[in-house]
Amino acid sequence: MLSVWAISRLVAGKDLRVEWRSRVVSNQVVPFAALMMVMFAFALDSDSVLKRVAPGLVWLAAMFSLLVIVQRAFAVETADGALDALRVAGVRGAGIFVGKALALAAQLAVLELILLGAAIVLYDTHLVGSGIALLACTYLTATLGLSFVGTLYGGLAAGAKGRETLLPLLMLPVAAPVLIGATRATEAALGTAGATTSDGWPWIGLLALFAVAFGIGGTLAFGSLIDE
Amino acid sequence: MEPAVELVDVVAVLGAFPVLAGATLRVERSEIVLLRGPNGAGKTSLLRLCAGLLPVERGTATVLGVDLVHDRTAVRTRVGLLGHANGLYADLTVADNVRFWGATVGASAEEVNAAMERMGLADRLADVSVGRLSAGQRRRTALACLIARRAELWLLDEPHAGLDAAGRDELDATLRSAAVAGATVIVASHELERAGSLATRVVQVVGGCIREAR
After folding, report:
1. Tell me, what's the ipTM?
2. Against a cut of 0.80, is the pTM above it?
């Protein structure tokens, strides 16, 4: 039997190949996220306000886009019974969880970079040299946390009726700490809302703790979750 | 050689409803067995139990030498269950799908190619997206995935559904060659005439119990 890590690489590679061939994230989700950033600018319509709230808007747009990516990641699995087939084939749930989360994290990371770029262009936000390491850590920990939560709740909702509306209801409240932590840390990294770089590091601890907790919890629980 | 499937007085329930009520069945290796019976008789439940998806409530059940009462998950990597869905990824090509499913058991590139060749998928269809295939071609791809996964016991639920005459002939030929190659095949089907001519033995399932028909 293959190791959990081997299964993870296999599943992640398959998910990224599905995206490469279908281009759903690049052709639909990225434009959706960019459009959200433009709509935020229309709604707030004030340079000073936009500059101050830019980190929060980036992470809100990332979370809403994540919902679409997670729905898509599990629609691919359930459309022709592939998730059931994986379960029947005895493929380890932990490997499926880690693989899907890694593929999700890769797609989300690219999307977040585009959102940050959009914030710089549209909201007149600036990167500060001293904040780059903090920003990188924020992106790493928040992306992993969101990916683990998204995969766990995506799997939970995959077999349920009304999964399109159920997923946001389940996932958004749980992911709220990531939204708060990532926003505060990004504010500190970008120097907005009067924050300094040193204010951001405690939030990295929260984000890392969240990612580790959901990473371990999801790895242990996912097999039973899809087996039920 | 031990039988592929040996069930003795097996009871299985789904919720509070007994789906198998004292089923006894023995299937030898390389047999092709047809399960027939009315809707709700327990055919699908029997297949799911053999695949290790349904717990054994009472009785004894051994599949490919694995005791399902004590560890029903251990048999899953050796069994291929094909229901109404094919378990394929529509955006991936035929080759990608077979390669992926083969890789779940560590199959080599040669094994994957051999599986595609056996199902007539190695040439012009290999690089076609599964979403663009006909129902018959998808079925063949799903069977190639079972071969690549080295499934020793094939559990097929209504495999002829949705196939045209040519597709059905191809499927029958595939199942016969799989049995010759050493796989054991259990088919649940309403297409009695077709599946009956394919099977080496017909088993009647009624009310969760099993009666030998021939």
Report:
1. 0.88
2. yes
